[in-house]
Amino acid sequence: MLTEERYSTILQILNEKNAVTVAELTQLLDTSESTVRRDLAALDEMGKLTKVFGGATSIKQTKGVLETNVSSREEVMSDEKNLIAAYAAGLINDSDFVYIDAGTTTSRLVDYITNKNATFVTNGIVHARKLLQKGMTVYVIGGKIKPVTEAVVGAQGIRSIQNFNFTKAFMGTNGIDIDAGFTTPDIEEALIKEKAIEKTYMSFILSDNTKFNRVFPVTFAGIDKCCIITDCLNDEKYSEHTVVKEVRK
């Protein structure tokens, strides 16, 4: 494969995955690690990607409003979601009044929760059912149900949250960026997230590494407003702006 072809393939892979390792590229390109490392260094110098230890991440990606449904996202980055969820569940104490945002990673969080003394509030329909089946005390905020994400949104939901004062909130996100903060494609869902964080003492974003350097149309919180729990931090600059916990195997 010619050099320019490798460059094009690497950038295409990054556009799809947002992050890639040298080992992955070596296999996909059927070439040596030294060649891949030289290619990444060259593309980094050209400003086409960001070279990090062991691989590369894409330059900020600006996304549109199109959003895939829950079922199609459920198994994406599955192992990473489990690591993040298991760690986050351990942060819940007996006296906590917890808000759980709708989303696939926060849904995994519910699977790992064992504390039955805490009280939970959620805008996730699936999340509420899971919590109920586990014998937890759970409240669902009222409002319109968004079919794609199975989340409660709208003005009524915002009014419901206004009356609460949460000790901890566990939030999902579509994108994380230093300048844009935490972003999502949908305005109504963003407003619910924004209000929940506003009414919470300590908020956590549960996100796998593919969400970094991505920007969606609506910001629901600045980068310094939430701690981040992730499987792998490919860019250390985020640690300069907020608390980041890496959870590895």
Please give a handful of descriptors for the protein shown.
7-stranded parallel β-sheet; 9 helices; 3-stranded antiparallel β-sheet; elongated; 249 residues; 26% strand; Rossmann fold; alpha/beta; Arc Repressor Mutant, subunit A
Structure, briefly:
The protein is an alpha/beta fold and 249 residues long. The protein has 9 helices and 17 strands.
Low-confidence stretches: none
Q: What composes the largest sheet?
A: 7 strands, parallel
| Amount of helix | 25-40%
State the CATH topology of the largest domain: Rossmann fold
Q: Which whole number gives the mean pLDDT?
A: 89
Rg result: 19 Å
Overall structural class, as computed from helix and strand content, comes to alpha/beta
Walkthrough of the structure:
With 249 residues, this protein is an alpha/beta fold. The protein folds into two domains: 3-59, Winged helix-like DNA-binding domain superfamily/Winged helix DNA-binding domain (Arc Repressor Mutant, subunit A, Orthogonal Bundle), CATH 1.10.10.10; 70-246, Rossmann fold. It has helices at 3-17, 22-29, 33-45, 70-73, 78-89, 104-112, 125-133, 155-162, 187-198; strands spanning 19-21, 49-52, 55-58, 61-62, 97-100, 119-122, 137-140, 144-146, 151-153, 166-171, 175-177, 181-184, 200-206, 214-215, 218-221, 227-230, 244-246. The strands form five sheets. Strands 7-6-5-10-13-16-17 form a seven-stranded parallel beta sheet, sandwiched between helices. Strands 1-3-2 form a three-stranded antiparallel beta sheet. It has a three-stranded antiparallel beta sheet with strand order 11-12-15. A hairpin with a 3-residue loop joins β11 and β12 (181-184). 40% of the residues are buried. The mean pLDDT is 89.
